[in-house]
Every structure is written in C-alpha cells, then in structure tokens.
Amino acid sequence: MKTTRVLIMYLLLALLALGVAPAAFSQSPSPAPAATAYSLTLNAVGLPGGKQSVPGTDAGFLFGVTQNASLRSDNILAPGNGFQAYLGGVQYRLNFLAKALENASPQLDGSHFQFSAHASIGVDRVSNPAGQYAQHYAVMAGFRGDYDPSGSGKFSVNLFDISYAKFPGWANNVPVISLGMKFWP
Description:
185 residues; alpha+beta; Porin; 8-stranded antiparallel β-barrel; 8 strands
C-alpha cells in the first residue's frame, strides 16, 4: 500500500516536471499565465461493466499551469457498486477546434467553446459485498467539450466528455461518458 502511494507520488511529480520543463528551457518568453488558476468540475458518469451500466460521480479539480495546459484530478465514485477511482493527469486545450467551429458557422461564437484532450493515471479500488477490497493501477484518456453560455468565464457546461478507461477489477478497456459543469471561483 505504501509502495503504491510512493509510486503514484513520483509519477505525478514526473508528469509535473515534464509539463514545466519545456517552458523552463525554451528561448522564447514563457506562455501567458492561465486566465483562471483553478476550477472545480462535477460530472455525472456512466460506468459500463459487468453486463450493466452503473451511475457514478466524477468530482474533479483543474489547476492551470499555462493558458492551454492544466493539471487535473479525477475522483470517480460509484458507491452503490463499490467502485472508486482516484486519478491525476494533464489536460490540454485545443484552441484550433473552437476557431474551426466559429469559421464553419457565423452564428456561433467560438470563444464560448473550449475543447480539450486529457490523460490521467492513478488507482481504482473495488469492493465486493463481503467487504473485501482490491486495488489496481488505472488509466483514463479522452476528449471533452465545454460551453460557456454567458461568456463570463466563471461557469461552463460540459457538453461531453468521452474517455477510454482501463479500470482493472471493474472493467478493462471501457468507454466512460460524462456530462456536467465546471466552476471557477
């Protein structure tokens, strides 16, 4: 158990170092700071597995490192079926997709849309009815689209978040689909 925590801590520190290193060694000025330093995400999640789909919750946190890159945390809980996943990773904003959407339709304001790709690694924990727990390494990667109806930058609706997940003990190689909201303080 302690070895797993230490391994995850080193992995997250390595991800952070990889994200910061290019900016530190570049000859050009560093990117502009993120418009918002952090945000909270709340999503309803559908978890397929065991010949059924189980409802769950993904409570997450984003910390902006640059204008386009953020560190992310995903805490997926499906307590009715004894499943928990705790993941940490990165999210990168794909600005060209919002611009392409704006160019495709003059009625849409592309600045209200945000598309991004994300990847996370961590652990999942599954319990059986007898109360026995099993813990495994887990990964999740995907693509999401957000819409800010007001244009204020304080609230957005998660239009979709489609991810590939490998949750050993629960279900391997499954799609995870979620919808929700993102808040900035």
